[in-house]
Amino acid sequence: MKKKIEHIRELRRKTGAPIVDCKKVLLECSGDPDKAESVLIKKGFNLAKNKEELTTEQGVITSYVHHDESIGVLVEVNCETDFVARNTEFKEFTKDIAMQIAACPPPYLSREDVPEDILNNIPEEKREEYYKLNCLMAQPFIKDPERTIKELITSAIAKLGENIRVKRFVRYEVGK
User: Fold this and answer.
1) CA-wise closest residue to 26 among 55, 49, 1
2) How many Cβ atoms sit within 10 Å of the Cβ of residue 161?
3) Residue 54 near residue 80 (C-beta atoms within 8 A)
4) Which of 163, 171, 153 is nearest to 58 (CA)?
5) What's the whole-model pTM score?
6) CA separation for the pair 58, 81 (Å, rounded)
7) Alpha helices in 2-147 (DSSP H)
8) Are 44 and 155 in contact (CB under 8 A)?
């Protein structure tokens, strides 16, 4: 029984799904936590897909200044309601995004933002690597390199129940 509770708690932590859903999916997957996690993540992706079209007119502008004060970031992250914008989890999520931008400075938000003339100079087989280095949404998350920023946003949408978008950002570095 104790192990089952630990599995449910761990699934909740990893996916952000409600406890009831974690318990239900764990039972459906015959107690296999890895399979249950996969199912819950897919459900989160489905939720994110359904939320994708909803407008995001609320949100926050979050700042991050590196400990040695040589790098600073401002990032605007939008959501659907001011209720979520004031939520502690949302604010922590935006701090993670700002820290990501400070650590791995992307010149572009997404693949669609990369100018055509730059893409023309990159061989087709090397574009995926270029996106991972230069597009925030395609970058591996610094705290969990197994997930991209896009996947982090998708799990935040599933956890908070609202559409979330990174609208824009600016990164400053002393001397540059």
Assistant:
1) 1
2) 15
3) yes
4) 163
5) 0.72
6) 5
7) 2-15, 19-28, 33-51, 82-85, 88-103, 116-120, 127-134
8) yes
User: How many angstroms separate the CA atoms of 86 and 139, rounded?
Assistant: 26
Query: Cβ of 157: how many Cβ atoms within 10 Å?
Result: 25
Give pLDDT tens digits for 122-135: 998 999 999 999 99
Give backbone dihedrals phi and psi of 56, rounded to 5 degrees, phi first.
Answer: -125, 90
Cα–Cα distance, 155 to 160 (Å, whole number):
9
pLDDT digits (tens, 9 = 90+) for 81-101: 888 899 999 999 999 999 999
Q: Which of 82, 77, 96 is nearest to 165 (CA)?
A: 77
Domains of the chain: 2-51 (1.10.8.10), 58-173 (3.30.479.20)
Is 56 strand, coil or helix? coil
On whether the CB atoms of residues 16 and 155 are closer than 8 A, the answer is: yes
Assign 142 to helix, strand or coil: coil
